[in-house]
Amino acid sequence: MTTIVHGARVSAGRLIRVLTPLLALVVTLGLAPEAAASSTGTDEDAAVVQRWIPRPDTVSISVETRDRQTYATVTVQAPSSNHVIRHWGLPGLRVNAHPIVLEGPGLTVITPREHTYRLGTLRPGDYTFVFACWGEPVQRKEFTVPPPDDPAPPPERWIPRPDTVSISVETRDHQTYATVTVQAPSSNHVIRHWGLPGLRVNARPIVLEGPGLDVITPREHTYRLGMLRPGDYTFVFACWGEPVQRKEFTVPPPDDPAPPPERWIPEPDTVSILVETRDRQTYATVTVQAPSSNHVIRHWGLPGLRVNARPIVLEGPGLPVVTPREHTYRLGTLRPGDYTFVFACWGEPVQSKEFTVPPPDDPAPPP
């Protein structure tokens, strides 16, 4: 079909392409100011997200260069279990993280959040690494990348006290595992290398430079000792060659199963659940505030809308300090609609979370 405009013939398709922008402008001008602003898509839908910016004295940064690669590790002491880092940002000499506060019950216990940025191969020289949150600089770290023939000074060593180290040994499916938990005296005390598995292991604890909080921070690692013959053994945990703690244990014969560990079920107000959908995949993250360092999650269970975890209490000495246990379940591609995620322990429901999976063309609302 053609139309005559001022004596000229214009096709219908061309007329529609000409008039469509004009009609959109007329509709926009006719809207109320707040509606016109929202129609442009410039409203920050993230305004409903409760943001938080850590205090500088709760953020520590360590930078190290190894194998000609430079890494920056940022540790944030979150004031509660609901304070999380939604996005850590892209790696670089200036990073911009997005910390948020989750809804729902949570414990006001300091919870470490840690992330390592790979800065790549930097030329020898002086640099400054800046950690920002929501565009606001929070903490910075000056560091030097030495020339290849000028190795960086070794970090400060530390050896944990025996009463801050607990060891649990268990045998399942004919395999023996030793789990070591070290109660570090501050957020800057870390285990750089846990050592190779065996009946005697040699770890290398170090003290990071920079500001840190004097808060007890659990460091945990599990060694797979392999298939041991039935009999009595001693597992020795050493640091920098010095024995710190040991654990005597027995590997029973195949027909003499080991006694089952003590079970425990978390209180509902100590469990928080976060569900988010990205790239059409749905993930559920469960955080359990364990009442001591000996309360662990032996198995988190298979992923699904209802999961069944198996929390147990390890034997041996432990500190009565709240210890976060966290796990993320991949729920896969769910059809748009309303769902309920249930976290159960030993078959008993403990906490649940209702959530909505939006259609592909309807972006998910921020948490």
Secondary-structure map with pairings?
Blueprint: E1 2-5, E2 8-11, H1 12-30, H2 33-39, E3 59-66, E4 69-78, E5 83-87, E6 94-101, E7 111-120, E8 125-133, E9 136-145, E10 156-157, E11 165-172, E12 175-184, E13 189-193, E14 200-207, E15 217-226, E16 231-239, E17 242-251, E18 262-263, E19 271-278, E20 281-290, E21 295-299, E22 306-313, E23 323-332, E24 337-345, E25 348-357
Parallel strand pairs: 6-8, 14-16, 22-24
Antiparallel strand pairs: 1-2, 3-4, 4-7, 5-6, 8-9, 10-14, 11-12, 12-15, 13-14, 16-17, 18-22, 19-20, 20-23, 21-22, 24-25
Textual characterization of the structure:
Helix content is 7%, strand content 52%. It is mainly beta and 367 residues long. The chain starts with a strand and ends in a 10-residue tail after the last strand. The strands form 7 sheets. Strands 10, 13, 14, 16 and 17 form a 5-stranded mixed β-sheet that branches. The protein has 2 helices and 25 strands. β8 (125-133) and β9 (136-145) form a beta hairpin. The longest helix has 19 residues, at 12-30. The chain has helices at 12-30, 33-39, and strands spanning 2-5, 8-11, 59-66, 69-78, 83-87, 94-101, 111-120, 125-133, 136-145, 156-157, 165-172, 175-184, 189-193, 200-207, 217-226, 231-239, 242-251, 262-263, 271-278, 281-290, 295-299, 306-313, 323-332, 337-345, 348-357.
